[in-house]
Amino acid sequence: MNFASSLCRRLNIKELVTNVPVYRSTSEVSGEGLSLVFRRWATKRTAGSTKNGRDSKPKNLGVKKFGGERVMPGNIIVRQRGTRFHPGNYVGCGKDHTLYALKEGSLKFERNKLTGRKWVHVVPKDGHVLHPVFAYASAIKPQATQ
């Protein structure tokens, strides 16, 4: 009971200040079997290097499937920033401008001679017929305006 009451009793500031043991050397401390290690704390932390640590993860951009290769639906053809390559027949475009195949077939890259615009098409596998919307659009090629 005496031990618990000594732990739980309140101490005033005067008792704390007057009853603090002062040690001048480590030999005075280690006499009772209790060893204390003196450690000096820094008042300010050292400044870290701010020139490193800002490298970003690679984005893995570029052409993933090349002309003449067979693709399955969902295969990524080109990862790009902006539309360097535009989607053609049976090619979809994601929100980050990634081009992907919509049908099974082989790839065909096309470049417009006048505008220089590059198109990516999937030529469907044998037995697939081009959808009428795509067939109509490919039959009417936009003419250069003068």
H and E string: HHHEEEEEEEEH
* Side-by-side strand order of the widest sheet: 1-3-6-5
- Pick out the low-confidence regions: none
Describe the main β-sheet briefly. Answer: 4 strands, antiparallel
Explain this structure.
By secondary structure, this protein is an alpha+beta fold. Helix content is 17%, strand content 21%. It is built from 4 helices and 8 strands; from the N terminus they run H-H-H-E-E-E-E-E-E-E-E-H. The protein has helices at 2-8, 13-18, 26-29, 132-139, and strands at 62-63, 70-71, 76-79, 85-87, 91-93, 99-101, 105-111, 118-124. Strands 1-3-6-5 form a 4-stranded antiparallel sheet, with no helix packed on it. Strand 5 and strand 6 (99-101) form a beta hairpin. It starts with a helix and ends in a 7-residue tail after the last helix.
Short key terms for the protein model shown above:
146 residues; 21% strand; four-stranded antiparallel sheet; four-stranded mixed sheet; alpha+beta
Describe the protein's topology.
Blueprint: H1 2-8, H2 13-18, H3 26-29, E1 62-63, E2 70-71, E3 76-79, E4 85-87, E5 91-93, E6 99-101, E7 105-111, E8 118-124, H4 132-139
Parallel strand pairs: 4-8
Antiparallel strand pairs: 1-3, 2-7, 3-6, 5-6, 7-8
Short description:
The protein has helices at 2-8, 13-18, 26-29, 132-139; strands at 62-63, 70-71, 76-79, 85-87, 91-93, 99-101, 105-111, 118-124. It has 146 residues and is of the alpha+beta class.
